[in-house]
Design a protein that fits this description.
This protein is mostly helical and about 550 residues long. Helices cover about 80% and strands about 0% of the residues. It has a two-stranded antiparallel ribbon with strand order 1-2. It is extended and about 95 Å long. The protein starts with 8 loop residues before the first helix and ends with a helix.
């Protein structure tokens, strides 16, 4: 028995016809009123823009043509202004009609029809499965040889798969039909208002498009890891008060997490640019150690307790602010030079960054350890952190340094030619080279940017920790930075990644480490958690890549 709610194509057209006729009649009136007004305004504005871009014209010719168009443009604007009120009344009439009739007389019956069609398609699918199973059993009853049985089972599985595919096609057709019915209203409004939608109308269309394109598998591939991590944090928030007698998500704890994350943000932002080029950097941790030693030596108050190649430095005769700026510049210089070395070998000799940065890591650690005998240098002048990262009440201003870094790198990635070239080279270096992009310059530029960020990050960490720099400081930070980028969605396949993802990744790892530390979880066990998260993130990234293929 046919479902009474299911509409035929003819029924659907009949439902829509009065709406199209009423609004179409108004639209024709509006088009007539716009012909010598709004339409001419848009036409002459486009002509003027074209004249401005035309480099074949002399200055005098350009000004003459623009002035002629301006005269006609003013006439059109006068007509537009004259007809404005009448057009507004007609638009209001059409929109009031749509509000009163579209959903009730057209869209709601279409939705009900689609829902009934979906149920009917499901019933047909079940009947088809039952029929296939009956046929399969009937065929099997007449077979005796194992090979024939195996072949029949294979064919049966294919028939089931085809039936499911047909069902999915039917579902998609029904979904398309409902979506098209929804969009028809906004198509009419689009014609009436020339694409000028209200805020609520724009939101409604975006929500509808999201539902239309939503795919459960894709959603969990994109967000499954974040959902799992959120659930872990929820569990930690429940366990911590029970075990430690104090809540986890307090204002001070949040500030502490952000404070710890700030220097690491610089490192992750630097590494992210290299991963975007299908690269990496294993020397980040040793860069931090080198920067910490350098900054501590320069910003130390008085004669240094340790020596560098047997020489003991004393910068105490310099003002505190000067020492801090000098320390920052020297940190940036050292990290950028070493970063450029690794970048040069990658860009010039196509050396895998794993090798070039690993060599860098060994050289830096060996050099700094040998020069300083591996000793830890003392604290820096306490006035310097108070000067550059002061506490405003309970708020640590080091967070603002990280915010500035995020904004600057976001601007470089998204608003500069270098940033666009970075994505292009990361996505397809051969195609980028053919289009005129210097792969060598882009690659070296990414390493230079990373080196600058490493210098800033190590200098900030020195200020946060009030010195105590040593060659061993920063061990494991390279893995943290890389892991944060991967979790944040920066793909090792190249050309895929967002700054927002990097920020999210850094905050996730810093929060997780902080939470586990509060719970008293052994550091070695924390490494296990980190490793599992990295494996999960990379696996999901690989699955997304395989899907695209």
């Amino acid at each position: 028995m046919a479902n009474s709610k299911i509409l035929t194509p003819e029924d659907k057209m009949k439902l829509r016809q009065p709406i199209d006729e009423y609004v179409g009649k108004i639209q024709k009136q509006i088009d007539v009123l716009r012909k010598d007004g709004t339409a001419k305004v848009l036409e002459y504005q486009n002509i003027i823009d074209g004249i401005k871009r035309d480099r074949t014209l002399t200055k005098g010719e350009r000004e003459n043509r623009i002035s002629q168009c301006q005269v006609e443009l003013e006439k059109a604007k006068a007509v537009e202004s004259k007809n404005k009120d009448e057009i507004s009344k007609l638009i209001a009439d059409a929109e009031n009609y749509l509000k009163a009739h579209f959903d009730k007389e057209y869209y709601t019956p279409i939705k009900e029809s689609c829902a009934a069609e979906k149920v009917q398609a499901k019933e047909r699918y079940k009947e088809r499965l039952a029929e296939l199973e009956r046929q399969h059993k009937e065929i099997l009853s007449g077979l005796k040889e194992q090979k024939e049985i195996k072949d029949e089972n294979y064919v049966y599985k294919n028939r089931l798969a085809n039936a499911k595919l047909e069902l999915q096609k039917e579902y998609q057709g029904i979904k398309d039909e409902r979506h098209e019915a929804f969009n028809h209203k906004y198509h009419l409004i689009d014609m009436l208002r020339l694409s000028k939608f209200t805020f609520l109308e724009t939101r409604e269309q975006k929500w509808e498009n999201y539902k239309y394109k939503f795919n459960t598998r894709s959603f969990f591939l994109q967000n499954g890891l974040y959902i799992a991590i959120i659930l872990v944090f929820v569990a930690l928030c429940i366990i911590t008060p029970i075990k430690k007698g104090t809540p986890l998500l307090t204002y001070n704890n949040v500030l502490n997490i952000l404070q710890q994350a700030s220097p690491r943000m610089f490192l992750a932002l630097g590494v992210a640019g290299l991963i975007l080029l299908t690269g990496t950097d294993l020397s980040v941790g040793r860069m931090v150690g080198m920067g910490m030693v350098t900054a501590t030596i320069i910003m130390h108050n008085g004669i240094n307790t340790g020596s560098v190649f047997g020489h003991i430095f004393d910068f105490s005769n310099m003002p505190a602010a000067t020492r801090a700026i000098l320390a920052l510049l020297v940190c940036i210089l050292f990290t950028t030079v070493f970063s450029c070395i690794a970048g040069f070998f990658m860009a010039r000799f196509k050396m895998h960054p794993f090798i070039s940065t690993m060599a860098n890591m060994l050289i830096i650690f060996g050099l700094v350890t040998y020069a300083t005998k591996g000793v830890s240098f003392g604290a820096i002048d306490a006035a310097i952190p108070n000067m550059f990262i002061p506490q405003i009440g309970s708020f640590p201003t080091i967070i603002l340094w990280a915010v500035v870094a995020i904004v600057v790198v976001w601007f470089i990635w998204n608003k500069t030619t270098f940033g666009k070239n970075l994505y292009a080279v990361g996505g397809n270096p051969e195609a980028a080279a053919v289009s005129g992009i210097s792969v060598f310059k882009v690659t070296l530029g990414a390493f230079i940017l990373a080196g600058i960020l490493y210098g800033f990050g190590s200098w900030l960490e020195c200020n946060r920790m009030v010195g105590s720099g040593s060659a061993a400081y920063g061990q494991g930070w390279d893995m943290d930075a890389i892991a944060a980028c991967v979790v944040g969605g920066v793909s090792f396949t190249g050309g895929i990644g967002k700054i927002s993802g990097v920020v999210t990744g850094v905050l996730i790892f810093t929060s997780l480490t902080y939470s586990l530390t509060i719970l008293g979880i052994d550091t070695n066990l924390q490494f296990i958690f980190e490793g599992i998260i990295i494996l999960a993130a990379v696996t999901l990234d690989c699955l997304k890549y395989v899907q695209k293929k």
